[in-house]
Amino acid sequence: MTHIVDTKYLKNLPTDFNKREQLVLKLSQELKNPVELPFDLPTESNINFKVINTVLSRLNLPMLPEDVFKKRLDDFLGFRNRISHGDMKIPIDQIHVDKFSPLVIELMHEILLEISEGYHQKTYLSSLSPPNSN
Length: 134
Hints:
mainly alpha; 2 domains
């Protein structure tokens, strides 16, 4: 809920009281409706370990364990960024595919499990942040 309120209502707060009153009315109506997650998530251009955990936290889902993912994800993003910024000295070969593919699959699996569990436990309705998995 906090993510929805933040992205839809708190980005550009009006200074005029009448407009704020309208904002409060819209917000109170929004809270009566079923939760629909917005598609715009704060990815900050690169989805590194910190950004993934920020997104998970905003959705009131447990964060990924640092000891399992942080270094591997940093390595992957470093490799990706060097390529995307024109470092032509880096060949992309089967060794890199074999190294990074399991990480991507593991991340997708872990995040899907967290989303599924959060949906079934309705953690998106809680006002408290979930426990940190670190």
